[in-house]
Structure formats: C-alpha cells, structure tokens
User: Fold these one by one.
Assistant:
Number 1:
Amino acid sequence: MLAKKNVTLEKSNMKVNTIIGTGAVFIGNLTVKDTIRIDGEVTGDVKTDAVLILGSSGKIIGDVEADTIFAGGYIKGDLKAQNKVEASSTAQIYGDITTKVIVIDENAVFQGKCDMNQQTAKEQTTENAN
C-alpha cells in the first residue's frame, strides 16, 4: 500500500466512489468524503477529504479543495490541496494553487500564483532553532 504522501495516479489502487461522467453537467457546490472523478462539467465549488481526479474532458468552474488533486482538464478557480497538486499535459488551470507539493507536466497551462506553505515552514524552522 502506498503512503498517502506518495500517491501517484498511475500506481495507486484508489477506489473512486463518486463519478461525474462525460457529458454530465452538475450546477452547485459538490462535497464528498471519498475520492471523486470528474469527466463532465461542474459549475460550483468542489470539496473532498480524499483525492480529486479531473479527467482530460473534465471542467470545473469554481474553487477546488482536496487532499490530493490530479488535474487533466480545465479548472477556473483556486485549488487548495493538503498534500499535492499534479497537472498533466492536458491540464488548464486558471487560479491560485495552495499545496505542499506541485507537479506540472510539460504543455500544461497554469496561470496564477502558487503558495507552497513556505512561510509556515520558515516559522517552524525559527521556532525549532530557539
């Protein structure tokens, strides 16, 4: 079993409990506890305590919050991931990203700011030194 911080989409055996399929349109805020995959369109904020997978045909207009985000489609909104954001070569992200780890493949589009919690890390280092 892979450690939570080292989850990669290709090697994981995660169980997807919620799917918004290709051609489906969801309007409103969406909150789930487990892993979700979106291949359709969501207009509204999306939040999960687990992993969010956005397929290459997927589209989200709204903010996204998850433990880990694998983006292959279009997102217009801010992303907040507790552990990792991974944007594949087909991803288009227009918004700010807050995460500990970020991976952006070649040809992915990212327009926004990225906060990798560096200020928090500096504060912890200062506290440990005292």
Note: Confidence is low (pLDDT under 50) at residues 1-11.
Number 2:
Amino acid sequence: MVIKKPQKPPKWEELVKKYSNFGGLFRITEAMINTHVSRGYPHWDKLRRLTPPQGLTSDQWWFAIKISRGSQYRPVPLKDTVGRPFVFLVPDSIQENLHAIDCGAGKSQHFSEPITNPQTRDQYLIRSFVEEAITSSQLEGAVTTREVAKEMILSGRAPRDTSEQMILNNYLTMRRIVDIKDQEMTPELVFNLHRLVTEKTLDKFSAAGRFRYTFEKRVVADMEGEVYHEPPDVKELMNRLEAMCNFANQKTPSYFIHPVVRGIILHFWLAYDHPFVDGNGRTARSLFYWAMLHYGYSLFEFISISSILRKAPVKYARSFLYTESDDNDMTYFILYQTEVIHRAIEELHTYIDKKSVELQQLQSEIKVLQNFNHRQVALLRHALKHPIQEYTIEGHQQSHNVAYQTARTDLLKLHEYELLEHKKRGKAMVFYVPPDLANRLRRLSIS
C-alpha cells in the first residue's frame, strides 16, 4: 500500500502574523459570509486545490476555517510525543452520521428478527466474526482467499501458515470480546487481547502480550523508509495505557463524549501509542469493538468495520495522517470512522434482508424444507451454491455454535433424506453434496 503524505497546513503562527490585524481579519470575515466549505471536513491538502471564496487566497481561507474550528475544539487526555493534547469537534457531518448509527444500532433500536431470534442469531454472529477476522487480518498483510479462510475457521482445522493463524486469532478474539464486554478496561485486559491477536504470529513469541522494548522501537514507515508516524517512548507507555483505560471506562474527561466517538478515539489512541512490536492495528480495532459492546451497542456483535476499511485502506491510513499533520485534530479520523460504521450497519441490514428474502423464496418453492430446522436449511442453501463443498460435524457445529450431538443429528437427518452423501475419512465422517441436489429437493417436495 503506497500512501502519499499529505501536505502540512501553513503554520498557525505565520498565519496569525500575516492576517491578524483588524483590516485583514475584517476582509477575511466579510469574504467568508454566506460561503460554505464543501461537504465534509477538508484537510489543507485538499482545501488548497479548491477554489477559495472570492477575494481570498487559499491561506486566508484556511486561516478563517481554523479560527472557526479552534473555537469549538474539545481536548482529550491523549497527548502527542511532546505533550500537546489531541482535540476534536463534532461538525454537522459527524452529527448526521452519529444519528444514523444510533438509529441503526442504538440501544433503543428494534433489531431485525433473524438476529433477535435465538434459533437464527448464531448464524449471523458467526458470519460477522468470520468476516471481521478475515478482513482485519488482510489489513495487516494476511494473504489468503476468503473461501480458504472460512473453510479453515468453520471446519476447525489447524492454520497452515502465519496468515491463517492471524485470521484464526482475530476470530477467537472477537468471540472473547463478547464474553468480556461487561468488564472494565484494564492494562491486563489490553495485554490479553494483544496476546490473543498475535499468538504464534510474531517473530518472537514472547512479544505477545507485552510492551515493545526500547531496542524494538518501531516507526510506521513504507517499504522505501518514508516515516509516517513515530510513537511515544517506551518509558511512557504504562502511564499512557492507564490514562487510556480511564478514558475507556468513562472516568475522563469531565464533559460528555458520545459513546461512538469515545470508542473511535480509543481506536485511535492505541494505534497512535503503538505500544506493541506488532498487532497494534488489530488490537486497536478489538478495543473499539469492546467499547461499542461495553457502551450498550449490542448490534456491533454483527457488524464488521474492517470489511469496509479493507476496501479503501489508503483512506483509513490517511485519516491518521490528517490528524497528526493538523494540530492533533482527531476530527478527521472520527469523521471517517463514523462514515465506515454507518456503511457497515447499512450492509448488515441489506445482508439480513437479502437472506430473509432468499430463504422465503426457497421455502415457498421447495416445501420439503419445512421438515428441516434453520441450520439444515442454511446448509442446503449453501450446498446448492457450492456443489463441491464437503461438510463435517465439527464444521457444522462451529458454523452454528451448537453442541456436537446437535450438529451430528442435523447432518444425519439430511443424509436420511438423501440430500447429503457421506463417507469415512480416517475416523471422521465427511458429508458431500450429491450432483443432483436440486432435483432431489424438488422430487421430495412433490412426493
């Protein structure tokens, strides 16, 4: 991934010297009246390419915008490497996204029946865990196909390489986060999450679940050595981590921060401090999920933000760079993340609606499906689309989060109806799709 560093804005001190006299400020203010910046929250790197309001230069336009933003900034306990606080504000674009998120995933939201129904929710839960595990790992360099990764997770086979191990780790971490969502954030919890996401993937296995050492200091850079970020000194990390935990537990600051914004800042905080040798990005996203579930946004069990981030990784990276290059203004990162979350929620609802329609159509066309439970119907639907797929009791158990005996009964009943064939492979029983599955279903519906 090649990222061009954004051009830094003009220095504030120089702008003040040039334009802070009464005449200059009056002219700039007059030109800004009834003039609106393009939708969003443009960084100088973008703004300098736009046509400024009549009578202003790009520098003057930026100066006026910074005056407006500066009056609304709120500081957070996170500080940069020289002690300056990070700040943010909540412009209309973020307010709009937060409203959409609250409507789509808030505590009072009436969720779709498939994810509130105990008989079907696990199917969607496993799907989201698998999706987040794969795409979060791909963001960090994992190389494998989606189908292979899904097969590895759902079949329960051991990972074959580091990429598959990363994906399995992320999957297990997502499941763990659901279990610990009610716990307060502590340094130990953060270390445990890092240990989960990096197990058996680091050059030094002992680096999992601990801070980087001084001699392991890492900068975020590209293949050519272009440095994008240099994290804080190792000696500061424990104090910074404790401050982050206090923030996560809503003990700081003294003013209200919307829970989604707080979760996003937590994501940024861990990534900025970069306290580990590797796995910082995956750990940061894990903390975000913990925060959303901890703050009561239960729909986030079913949402994958990494699947959206994976589609535009440069935008994800640039939102970090915009923040660091413009006076620690986290608004850029918050705006991008709220857009990502909003899209992820929309994709979930679209997926649920699509699957509900597909199931209704299939059930209306093939009446024999009324003889089967939702897990068996899901398997048959998958089998129709993947005629060379093989199924195991363990894989079916993992896919639907049921007991081994329940999974075994499901598959044997499908075999009894001659909708699956089976054979022995060693001691294991493997079920496979007959080539005429669709015709068999239709024949059973008629008979």
Note: The CA atoms of residues 422 and 431 lie 4 Å apart.
Number 3:
Amino acid sequence: MSENAERVAQALEATIGADPVAGDWMEVTQERINDFADATLDHQFIHLDPERAAATPFGGTIAHGFLTLSLLVHLSASIKDETPDMTGLLMGVNYGANKIRFINPVPSGSNIRATATTMSVELKGNAVDHTRLMTVEIEGQEKPALVAEWISRLVFA
C-alpha cells in the first residue's frame, strides 16, 4: 500500500458531504455539436438540422447527451476545490460511472458548467477510487443537463 495513496484517500474522505463546487462556464457551439456528430457518426437531425429541429419540442438543435458527458473532463478541470497534495501521483484515469442521467437537453449556443461533490473514497492498494456527484448545469435553466456518479482512479507510486 502506498503512503501517498493512503494520505490522499484520507484527505478526500474529509470532503464527503461538503457543498458542491462549481467550475467555469463554457459555450456549447453548433460547430462543436457538428464535430461530435462527425466523430461519433451520430447525425440525427435534432443535433444538426436547425429547421427540422425547430419543429420539435426542443425548438432548435441540441447537443448529444454523450457530448455533454464527454465534456466532464474539461468542465471538471476548472473546478477550484481544495485538492490534496498529489505527491507520488503516477496517473489518473476515468474508471467508470455508477449512474448517469440525461435530465435536460442542452440547446446549441448554451453555456454549461459542472459542479462536483465527493460521494465516496475507496483505497485500493496503490490507488484511490474517488466517486463524485457531477452535475452539469445549463445557464438560465433550473433543471440540470446531466447528473452522473463519476469514478476517477488515482494511481500512486
């Protein structure tokens, strides 16, 4: 067992139950939506065709749910929480998710940001599994776009 992993696990455990911390806003542009459609081969009209999408309950084009999910890495990087000293960290990887819900569509041109709060911490040898409740908010809307229980694995020397 790594002393560094044990120290970080204890520090992260102390944040369980703390208020969510928000990151910076970013715009979800139509260009980003189009690029994601090309990368994933998901060319459904609700994402790409403003005229047809305007006739739907969405009233215009919307981001793919999986685009919003994939932006969690970028969105979480701007969250300024009290990160413990990561001395000895070899790498951090996306380990998975316990639960993901797409609550509200993200209209093209909207600003979104993520909030995070620690749900659980598990020490696993030289690694720490850090599960956070991630909520992606849409500026000016009451309901969030996405709620996910996201697990990051931190591997230490």
Note: The first strand starts at residue 21 and ends at 22.
Number 4:
Amino acid sequence: MNKIHSMFQDLTDKFEGVFKKLRGHGKLTDKNIAETMREIRRVLLEADVNFKVARDFVAGVQEKALGEGVLRSVTPAQQVIKILHSELAHLMGDTNAALKDSSMPPTVVMLVGLQGCGKTTLAGKLAKYYKGKGRSPLLVAADLQRPAAVEQLRVVGSQVGVNVVAELNSTPVEVCKHGLLAARKAMNDILILDTAGRLHVDDALMLELQEIQRETQPHEILFVADGMTGQDAVNTANEFAQRLDFSGVVLTKLDGDARGGAALSIRAITNKPIKFISVGEKLDALEKFHPERMASRILGMGDVVSLVEKAQFAVDEDKARKLEKKLRRQEFTLEDFYDQLQQIKNMGPLEDVMKMIPGMGGKAMKGMQVDEKALVYVEAIINSMTLDERRRPQVLNGSRRKRVARGSGTSVQDVNKLLNQFKTMQKMVKRMSRSGMKGMPKFTF
C-alpha cells in the first residue's frame, strides 16, 4: 500500500524540533523566546506560508509569549505551545464556518475555481455529503468549456445516486437557470452548480460566473483551491475574491505532498473561511474544516474530537449494545470480531485514524507500517469459515484449517496466527468479566 502523506507532516515534524529546544530551557528569557520565534518563522516559510502572514503570526505569538504570566510560569514551554495552538486556530478561522441553508429550498451552492482544481469531483463529494444528511441534492453540469466535464459529472452523479442536469447545446447560464427550475419541480433541497474554470483568471470567465450568480442567487459560492499548488492557490483565491464575492473556500488534493502553506495563508489573505477540506480521491473523503482541531493536528496533539465523530458515524449502536451484553456473558465470537473489523474500516484508512490519537502524530508514527493488507487477510480467513466455525472456533481441526486457508488464499500458519490472537482476546474479555465490568466504557469499535 502506498503511504498517504499527511498534508502537514513536514510542518508537524519541524514544530516538534522547535518544541524540543524550547523544553530544554528551564526558564524562558527574552533571548530564547526571540530565538524560538525565528525558528517558527523559518518553519512557516518553508511550509510555503505567505511571508506577510508568517511575519504577522510570529509577531502575535511573540507578544503573548513575552507576557509576565508566561515568563513566571512553572511550565513556560507548555504555555508558549498553548499560545501557538490558539494563534494557529485563530489564523485559520477559530471555528468551523457552517454552510448556509436557505429557508426556501433549494439551497444553491456554486463551485468556482481554476481548471484542474477538482471542482467536478468536489461536486460529487458534496452531493454525497448532503445525501448522507438526509437531503435531496441535484447536480448541474455548467462546465461546457471542458468536453469531458459533463460526462465526468454524470459518472460521479451515478456513483452517488444523484441526478445531473446537463445540456450540451446550451450556455452555462441557461443550464444553471434550468437546473434551478428542475430542482424546484422535483423538490430537491440542494442544488450544486459545477462551473467552468480556466488555466488562469480572465475577464470572460469572471463575467460568466457573475452572470450565473445574478441569475441563480446562490446561497454559497465556494472557491475550490488546489492545496498542492501552495501560494499559487492563495494568489488565485485573492484574485477571485476581488472579482466575485465568494463565501468560503474548499481545499482539495490535501492527501498529497502539500506543505500546508495554502491552508495556513488563505484565510488571512482572503478573509474568507475554509469550510471543507478534501483529503482523498474517494467520494466520502471530505471533511468539515475545524481550525482548532487542525491546529492540534499540526502541533502533534492529535484530534480526539474528530476521531470520536468518525467512530460515532461508523458504529452501529444496536450492534454495540448487543456486543456489550455478549462481553458480559463471555460470548465474544469470531463473528463479533468480524463485525467490529467492518466498523473500524468504515472510519477510513488506519494510518489516518491513528494520527488523530494524541501522541501518535509526527515522529511517533515514523517507521511504523500500518499494514492494512493484514486486515484484508483476516477478513478473507473469517469469510472462508462456516457460520458454526465462526461461532465455535474450537471445532476448527487440522483439515478444516487447511480448507479455510485454501478458501482465503492464505496459509495454515496465517489461520493459526489469527486463532491464537483471538484466544488471547477471549482470555482478556474473561479477565475483565471476572473483575467486574461496572463502569466499563461501551465498546464502540
């Protein structure tokens, strides 16, 4: 499996180096605070953060770090890190900026940006996001500049089970107007307009977008920025903001080697909030942007709140209650283990999940291989068992184990390894049951 790069991994690692030096000082002085601020400025500039943004940010941190309370604190290094966390969150917008919702459906969401920034894929992701919340989205293919764009949106629409309004022999403005009428007629409560981009910002593009805005009166205009382009994305966003008053930003392609500079600069430069981040190619790889949580991730503090939210979304509460009863009766089987495995998989790539755990980001994850293939093998082995074998693994004799290994494309040693690990797990459950499970948290994954 190819390793998915964290968009802020390099930034996190470098901040850890700064904090290590900071903790080495028993007492903070004007001199070592100034030295720390120089290091932080260098780290930000290397991450492709806008020069002015980096300068103002460091000045703000330094002013608070030189306060009397920090200098006299028994834990001055932690105090500075706390200030840094607060200022990073503030730089990125303090709190999540929710999408606007119209009291009179449909809510119209217009996507704008340069060609190749990921608008069409994002349209599908937003449709899936809204559909998952019980809404009824409709997609409009208003990018008539790129021949494959309409077909791409149709494919994306079919993948998420959402209709697409497309008219090849029309104009983008007319298609959007017809999409609005279609949404009202079909009682769709969300209308997503996928507009055209250019390789650069030009008058023809902006006039077209302004006309679509006048005709459809969108409740949200989201500027879609390619996070991989760093400062170019910020500069383009600023140009768009001067011509088209967009309401928020979505950063895409942040699963690559992006250095994080766009995410840290774009809010300060455009004064527009980041509303979502796109963190993968799959249509469910879309996250609400929470500045305070992102600040925690950048500083290697993990992101427990997002982890809990992922778990809540992935977990079947009815199954969780049944599992708790089984654990109390010491009836945990391979079938239950398989169900838990499915719920863990629903939370996303294991490596991304682990990075949300405090202390597991940055250098703690270096050299650790999260082998998701191992989970695939475990699934295949359990799927090759009969229902009775899953419920009573003790019946798995030598010949049955050979059959399971053949059916799962694994070896008998792999089957034995899984069964031994499962026995260890059962003993653990037994010990917990004997010692009393009062106050034991409910199993959620």
Note: The mean pLDDT is 78.
